[in-house]
Hints:
The chain is an alpha+beta fold. The chain has helices at residues 9-12, 42-55, 59-67, 78-93; strands spanning 24-31, 34-41.
Amino acid sequence: MIFASAAPTHARGNCRGVSMQAARKPRNVIIDGKRTSMRLESAFWDGLAEIARREEVTVGTLCTRLAGELDSLSAGSLSSAVRVYVLSYFRTAVLPQGSRQARC
Length: 104
């Protein structure tokens, strides 16, 4: 019998076996005037803060916008919506002019 309890090295990290797992960090954000907690990896918190800075809004304002668009982002949770948005935002930044823009 084969047990699948341990993922192969390439599934856990890069090809050299270095772990690429990132701990999710909880932080509080204000959404529509209410405090809520989200757990995101540091890279996504950093990306969210960078987007807010570039767009000249607070992280809370950005999260409020995302919360209002959960259905259109095909995300089941705010944390998932943030991950999708941050990835889309920076992916769009490297696309040629005229390509589809990430919206919020």
